[in-house]
Amino acid sequence: MPLVDITPQTNIRELVEALPIAADVLAEFGLACSGCGVNKYETISAGAKAHGLRAEPIVAALAQARLSGRVPTIMNEDRVPARRAPGEFARRAKFTYVVPVMSGKGGVGKSLTTGLLAVGLRRAGKRVGILDADITGPSIPRLFGLRTPLAIESDPSVPAGQAPKPLMVPARSRSAIEIVSSNLLTDKEDTAMIWRGPILSGVIRQFYEQVLWSDLDVLLIDLPPGTSDAPLTVLQSLDIDGVVLVTMPQRLATMIVRKAANLIHQLKKPIVGVVENMSYFVAPDTGKRYDVFGPSYADEVAELAQAPVLARLPIDPRIVELADTGRIEEIDDPVVDLLAGRLTEALAARPKPKQMISII
Question: What is the structure's pLDDT at 190?
């Protein structure tokens, strides 16, 4: 195999294939996604940026490893992500887009859709975060194979002499997707969160405000089903750029999703797209397509939502396996690129709303 130049513009996948020890070096910097679908398109520079790191020390360490055949010693300051302290007004400028994923109906695949959107956006070079607002039924950490509880750090923006405020540090997936979830408040993922509505709303606000988020291109918010406390907190209190509605080809589900669309319109928030999950199944042996849950109603929902259909997602056992085993980032399917690309286009087509003073 020909020798690959090691520069900030070197493709990570090609480098690891040519120089296997590069995977160990990258892992020392926290870039542990050398085998997933994201770095098929990612350069060292883009990967470093996504992780909040400088590319130069990574390139130098890779070059040294190629010469010595060993992973060199990495300085701690070169592997610690750069984070800026949050602030009620500065914070809003750090998130280019805030996009809740909503349905109104449980079991339609909101969390899976959120995960696929995040992976697709990362493959497109975006910096992505996920706020898992489904407090009592969180699925996002399992999709990304995360189990370690969130760390707590002092607010670095507090002036000297004042008591620092403790803030949560988001978990990072293998491809540097930042994630905050109630399932990462404990080391046992089956712990029940027995909280009433007002507490749930407060936790969601804390996940947004009291977290050391990095600068993000897109913050996705995985909402629980229904149209009550948690969705209202997000839709009424946060600067939303557009909602993604998730539905499935079943008339009952469509009816409930339409309720969610009506709620969003009543609150005068935009809907940027509709995703129909479990839309169809393609038999692997014959290639024949089956509408397992009946005919599609995505166009009907999209017409009511006044938004385009972003994608119709098939029933795919491969995606299910990756999701169940916490390896959703390993998906290498054009559907995630299609989904993320159409969302990006829909967001860019809408004027950015004026920033409001937060009430939270």
Answer: 67
